[in-house]
Design goal:
Blueprint (H helix, E strand, L loop, with lengths): L2 H18 L5 H12 L2 H5 L3 E11 L2 E10 L3 E8 L2 E7 L4 E4 L9 E2 L2 H10 L15 E10 L2 E9 L5 E7 L5 E10 L2 E15 L2 E11 L6 E10 L13
Antiparallel strand pairs: 1-2, 1-13, 2-3, 3-4, 4-5, 5-6, 7-8, 8-9, 9-10, 10-11, 11-12, 12-13
Length: 243
Amino acid sequence: MNVMASRVLLAAGAVAALAAAPVPTVDEIVAQHVKARGGREALAAVKTLRMTGRAFGGPGREAIVRREFARPGRLRTEFVFQGTTGVYVWDGSSGWQVSPLDGSLEAKPLAEESAALSSEQADFEGPLVDWKAKGHTIERVGSATLPDGEAHELKLTLKSGVVRRIWVDAASGLVVKTASTRKVRGRETEFEVSYGDYRETSGLRFARLLEIGAKGRPQRLKIVVENVEINPTLDESRFKMPR
């Protein structure tokens, strides 16, 4: 057998081996993801979380962003832009906001669409962690080739009925992209979020770079996370609507 024939046989064998490789189950994909994040025990030990960074929406459009999470299911997001501070809060059962850029200087309830989104985002572990206990359902749709490599595509149906698509990097087990449809000013819009630059803090890995935008549109909101604090002290008043 000549060298060329040997190489052809080796290549054919490699392709056959890949084709025969078992497709991972949803449980296996999620287990890899949880391990990549730092493990279930380490995630469960997080009671509060603070993330700070900057958001870039284009030339001259830069804001300081701070997000504070507290169990069970509470979230406070602040945007500081051109000397004004917008506050958006989900207290675990309802939401409120103070939005100077919208002409509102007093606290008022979040709109239904914003409240639903805040409720989802308050789960800082992410919906894949303990998904069965949270009442979600997941199915593996297939595989996809993304710029950074192969990924498992999952269809996630939240307990609320909202459907998301999630791409989990096949090599690292980390979420690299999500997509979901939600209403913006009454219109259904599909949004995509890309995640990257994962770094470790206190044994847990968090994405330090997020890019958010509507599908098919070139504009992207870029968020750079500069600091992550595990279990900072957060006063209960941070989540209560001012009276």
